[in-house]
């Protein structure tokens, strides 16, 4: 089989500038890649696997940082990954025993990976971090976003009219 690598691409030339192997050497990964997220300043890349193992790549040197982190998932698997503007790694996990009934948003401060209290989410969310510790999430079949304030847990519905988004980015 083909080894797993993370490709760095120069957006102006669309040329691959580096290939970082995720197998062998100092990398002992498990599970499949669930998502990749870049820190707010672009200094590092977090590669998150379905079993909540997290590898960090230094974006300048393209080297895997020797601080592989593995977190307990119990009967959960990672379904979505992102990084907020304050460099909090946001990881949505779902229950694998009873599918689509339990989703949590696990939060980790970067670079130390200290875990914050998890938040409960409705099943099946896709999300994008927004400004000021906010999170915008939606259901793939929905026509509204939910704005979640990560500081106090309050939510507000943001209607999109008849649009059915497949992906959002908040800038």
Question: What does this entry show, briefly?
Answer:
With 171 residues, this protein is an all-beta fold. It is 0% helix and 51% strand. The strands form 4 sheets. Strands 3, 4, 5, 6 and 7 form a 5-stranded antiparallel β-sheet that branches. A 4-stranded antiparallel β-sheet has the order 8-9-10-11, with no helix packed on it. Strands 12-13-14-15 form a 4-stranded antiparallel β-sheet, with no helix packed on it.
How would you explain this protein's 3D organization?
The structure is a single chain. The protein is mainly β and 171 residues long. The strands form four sheets. Strands 3, 4, 5, 6 and 7 form a five-stranded antiparallel β-sheet that branches. A four-stranded antiparallel β-sheet has the order 8-9-10-11, with no helix packed on it. The chain has a four-stranded antiparallel β-sheet with strand order 12-13-14-15, with no helix packed on it. The model has no long low-confidence stretch (mean pLDDT 76).
């Amino acid at each position: 089989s083909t080894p797993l690598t993370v490709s760095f691409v120069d957006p102006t030339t669309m040329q691959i500038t580096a290939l970082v192997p995720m197998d062998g050497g100092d990398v002992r990964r498990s599970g499949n890649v669930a998502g990749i997220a870049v820190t707010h300043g672009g200094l590092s890349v977090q590669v998150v696997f379905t079993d909540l193992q997290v590898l960090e790549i230094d974006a300048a040197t393209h080297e895997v940082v020797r601080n592989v982190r593995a977190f307990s998932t119990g009967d959960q698997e990672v379904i979505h990954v992102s990084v907020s503007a304050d460099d909090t790694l946001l990881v949505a996990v779902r229950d694998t025993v009873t599918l689509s009934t339990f989703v949590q948003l696990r939060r980790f401060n970067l670079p130390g990976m200290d875990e914050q209290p998890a938040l409960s989410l409705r099943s099946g969310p896709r999300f994008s971090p927004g400004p000021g510790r906010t999170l915008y999430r939606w259901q793939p079949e929905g026509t509204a976003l939910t704005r979640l304030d990560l500081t106090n847990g309050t939510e507000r519905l943001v209607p999109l009219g008849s649009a059915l988004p497949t992906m959002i980015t908040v800038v």
